């Protein structure tokens, strides 16, 4: 099993999660982060740190699509280990439904 990042991270990207991960397995896209499923050690410490409640264990049902997205993009986006400021408009998008369909970007983030 692994933990994965899901829809509500898109355009929120608060980044509280990256500071606590003991194995630095977060990767940064233009407007969301993902977890590398093969590097995550399932410690679970990031899950309660996410203000957007976007981090879930892949054992939850209905998350197959998100496991694939985390797997695919963690292989091509840059590693991120240090928190930066969230986007100014992050709160406006927190909790909005269907963000993947509306806003997902394949573009990589800056990383560190
Ligand atoms: S804390 Fe949550 S919303 Fe913020 S970057 Fe991490 S997974 Fe995304
Ligand atoms: S569960 Fe642990 S190892 Fe996996 S991403 Fe979260 S903090 Fe990192």
UniProtKB/TrEMBL annotation:
Sorted keywords for this record are: 3Fe-4S, 4Fe-4S, Electron transport, Iron, Iron-sulfur, Metal-binding, Repeat, Transport
Q: Which residues form a coiled coil?
A: none
Q: Which cofactor does it need?
A: [4Fe-4S] cluster; [3Fe-4S] cluster
Q: Give any GO molecular function from the UniProt entry.
A: metal ion binding
Positions of the 4Fe-4S ferredoxin-type domain = 1-30, 31-60
Q: Which Pfam families match?
A: DUF3470, Fer4
Question: Which purpose does this protein serve, as stated in its record?
Answer: Ferredoxins are iron-sulfur proteins that transfer electrons in a wide variety of metabolic reactions.
**What is the protein's given name?**
Ferredoxin
Q: Which organism is it from?
A: Devosia enhydra
The organism's taxonomy opens as: Bacteria, Pseudomonadati, Pseudomonadota, Alphaproteobacteria, Hyphomicrobiales
């Amino acid at each position: 099993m692994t933990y994965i990042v899901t829809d509500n991270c898109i355009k929120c990207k608060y980044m509280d999660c990256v500071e606590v991960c003991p194995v630095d397995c977060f990767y940064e896209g233009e407007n969301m982060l993902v977890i590398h499923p093969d590097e995550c050690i399932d410690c679970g410490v990031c899950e309660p740190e996410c203000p957007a409640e976007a981090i879930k264990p892949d054992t939850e049902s209905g998350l197959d699509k998100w496991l694939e997205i985390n797997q695919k993009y963690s292989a091509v986006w840059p590693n991120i280990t240090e928190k930066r400021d969230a986007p100014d408009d992050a709160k406006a998008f927190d909790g909005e439904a269907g963000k993947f369909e509306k806003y997902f970007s394949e573009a990589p983030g800056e990383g560190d």
